[in-house]
Amino acid sequence: MAYAITQTCCNDASCVSVCPVNCIHPTPDEPEFGTTDMLYIDPQACIDCGACADACPVDAVFPVDRLRGPDTVFGDLNRDWFRDHPSDHAWGRPSFPRSLPGELGVLRIAVVGTGPSAGYTAQELLRSTSAELTMIDRLPVTGGLLRHGVAPDHQSTKRIAESFASVFHDPRLRMHLNVEVGADVTHEELAAHHHAVIYAVGAAADRRLGVPGEELPGSLPATAFVGWYNADPTVPADAVELSAERVVVVGNGNVAVDIARILLTDPDRLAATDIADHALAALRRSRVREVVLLARRGPEQAAWTRAEFLALRQLPGVEVVVEDHPEVRAAIEAASGAQAAAGARPAADSRSASGPQAALLAGLPLVPYDGAAEPGPGRRIVLRFLSAPVGLAGDGRVEELTVERTTLVDGERAEATGRTDVLRTGLVVRSIGHRGVPVPGLPFDERTGTVAHRGGRVVDPATGRPLPGAYVVGWAKRGPSGGIGANRACARETVDALLDDATARALPEPGSGHKEFDRLVRSRRPDAVGLKELRAVDRAERERGEAEGRPRVKLATVPELLAAGRRR
Ligand code: NAP
């Protein structure tokens, strides 16, 4: 029986490199890689060896006959990919691990950040060189978006953190947490102690709607909402209030889907995860019954991935409906018709591995919707398309959101129609994407919200010349899109650029070494956190979790994290 890849696929292609028959696609050498929601196993070519399941960092690969419940759909999804993308499974060009000429000596490399892109970068450097690494994070705990972004009910995705934990404890790596580059140490100081500095700082800010009332209490960016349920110590425990019956989430990406799912999932199910204690308590008290997912464009333009949306459709006890609108109805019918014409599946079957996004909505009830009325009984998600937020209002906090009906022009651009209506709501979450913040001392591209770079080398935008020894990786390099696994190929590109520069002797020689750097950090941040303290935090969280049958109970404030670290 063949294996199949399921919903939690992280796309990092660890499985591809261990498959002895090259039956997992798209591979990193194929043009679709990075554009598909997930990777797929060809059941005709799979020899059932299970190597992919062993290599998968997120436990997403199973024999087809062991798939149960909602996961059974993934047998078809894997098979269907190859119906649409026939492959001869011929091997691409071999690639070999990079190594540096021995006479270069040991490179000292600083990595700023400890999230997924930093983890893959450190892994790549430790595997392919004898470099010594310094890792720095402004928070007193590692993980970045793996800890504070991935939803708590996606525990298998968080398992990637375990493979990074072994990287972070490598004897060639030193850790300085609770230290902010730009505030506690400068880029110049990092550069003076290392041959190269790689910035893996993500995209920490949220995008703005730019509409009146956006600052009212009850209007939150997704970064705050997600940080709140994930125990991000920069987000207060009382940042979210769930006293309203209707919540509007603006945006149609995977983060919006995560937020809708967490808001309406039975808290007893979340209680088995590492969700923040304060969030679990608030969700138990929550009055929220209806979540409106608001999209300014149509269903075909939705940014969520198929697997995430299918999981939303299968949320126990939650009805998913679509606001009825002629353009939306037409888009769903057209997509379903196109899918039926193209292949084997009936029009109402939305399980195809590829094809129009709008076909995913086939079979969902199309209902008239009045956002000014009380939400009906039961828990439901309302998909409202062609609706752009134009203003929030309320007496001291959000009470209503005004939306303007849009129409699609040229098949993809939203054009305002001038027709508005009002949704009564006490909480509006804008989930419209992240934005990078400038790193002091580095050139920043305001247009893309990323560090200015070419292939991972930081460049001066005025001259196009690289800043010797400065590199960037992850969302700070590519912008805020792509899941966790996309960072693996991105890290490889940046590390390759660095190794090319090292081989060409283009890296500046640092004036002093890591002992001096450790002293500098301690003088600036006596409360900096190292690996021993990090281990103590991890142990404390796991012990608390064990007592409650949870993977861990996260410490949610900086003082708690520092105190747990000191108790080592
Ligand atoms: P995203 O995928 O870029 O989606 C942003 C959404 O916001 C789009 O629907 C966009 O609509 C909408 N939007 C932008 N500006 C708007 C405005 N002014 N008014 C109304 N709507 C607006 O961003 P994201 O959801 O934050 O996700 C970021 C990345 O993380 C994505 O690659 C995502 O797949 C990944 N991620 C993955 C997972 C997972 O795999 N489980 C979970 C979370 C995040 P338009 O298209 O009309 O601009």
Q: What does this molecule look like?
A:
Mean pLDDT is 93; it is low at 346-350. A seven-stranded mixed sheet has the order 7-6-5-8-25-24-23, with helices on both faces. It has a seven-stranded parallel sheet with strand order 10-19-11-12-15-13-14. Strands 16-17-18 form a three-stranded antiparallel sheet, with no helix packed on it. The longest helix is centred in the last third of the chain and has 18 residues, at 486-503. Helix content is 31%, strand content 19%. It is globular, with a radius of gyration of 24 Å. By secondary structure, it is of the alpha/beta class. It starts with a strand and ends with a helix. The chain has 19 helices and 25 strands. The structure holds NADP nicotinamide-adenine-dinucleotide phosphate. Residues 209, 250-256, 258, 295-297, 301, 303, 305, 308, 388, 431-434, 480-483 line the site of NADP nicotinamide-adenine-dinucleotide phosphate (NAP).
